[in-house]
Amino acid sequence: LCGVMYKDEL
Amino acid sequence: MNIFRLLGDVSHLLAIIILLLKIWKTRSCAGISGKSQLLFALTYTTRYLDLVTNFVSVYNTFMKVVFLAASYATIWLIYMKFRATYDQNHDTFRIEFLLLPVTILSLVANHEFTLIEILWTWSIYLEAVAILPQLFMVSKTGEAESITSHYLFALGSYRGLYILNWIYRYYMESYYDLIAIFAGILQTVLYCDFFYLYITKVLRGQRLQLPA
């Protein structure tokens, strides 16, 4: 997985 | 969530709290770069726009709100409440030299050419270099108070721990984000010189003083 995805990191 | 990510977030939170407490308790922001803090506020603001567009978890929302609030509180302390103690003459790093390349890079190297994605990318690149005005200030004055050193150590450790988190996620979840990884490595590398001084001096009870 790489690229635009929903971001769960801060 | 893995242990590296959690430790990274704790370290980040600790850094922000140390800085706020230092300024509040000493009633002074001497030795602190207002420019770096402005860049961090810009970082959080542009990165956490998704706070209103999608929900990840209570933890995620809570931390984002805390980082935003603490960042603006810090700005307020430096530029309003304790403005008289702000060391403006030593905070002379030209931030346009950071903002220009960061803006160009985020327009060129992003995952998708949409406003929210470009702003997220911009925040990632900006965060990587946002500490430079602070490190420049320390090198200019040749020293840093212990508490400022602790702040810098905690703030530098956070992205270093995130790198371990990304390595873990790459193997365990097949997840990786090249933009975050590239910027995170750069960010951590910028602290290396400081880490060396912190470990060899501050942890041995000496002041962080740079060789003349």
Automatic annotation (TrEMBL), chain B:
One of its GO terms (molecular function) is ER retention sequence binding. Keywords: Endoplasmic reticulum, ER-Golgi transport, Membrane, Protein transport, Receptor, Transmembrane, Transmembrane helix, Transport. InterPro entries: ER_ret_rcpt. GO terms for biological process: protein retention in ER lumen; protein transport; vesicle-mediated transport. The keyword Membrane applies. Belongs to the ERD2 family. This is ER lumen protein-retaining receptor.
